[in-house]
Task: structure prediction
Amino acid sequence: MPAAGRVLTTALAVLTAAAALTACSRTPMADAAQTRCGEYAIPQGTPGIPADRLDCLSSAFAARRTATLTVTEPTTEGDPVITTYTTTVDGTVDVVVDATADTWAGTNATVVHYECRSATFSLGRVDVGDCETLAGPRESPSD
Result:
């Protein structure tokens, strides 16, 4: 077989193997429509979530794509409260607030899950509205 033919055959074999591996390793979180806006820890006394993270979540919400942003914010005493925002294809925002590490919260040191039908993203904050408390987190953001 000429050298050009071997190169073409090798390239096709590599592409076929890569496609097979990609198909086998896909998870709901690896979906092309899923956007990861990252994780951000808000330092004590700062204005909030950076604009690029908010823009990431806001544009996914507007386009009805799934995207996730996890924000850790300290309480006044410095204990972390972790909030995960996930936009959905249904045009809602799932909000999971984990306050289990808040030593001063007492019986409020729980994990709470909300499904919200409205949201605004500005001034370092995600403000949600028209929310319903759910029993627990969804199994995947697109459920």
Observations:
- DSSP finds two helices and six strands in the chain.
- Strands lie at 35-41, 67-74, 80-87, 93-98, 111-122, 125-134.
- Residues 1-27 form one domain.
- Confidence is low (pLDDT under 50) at residues 3-31.
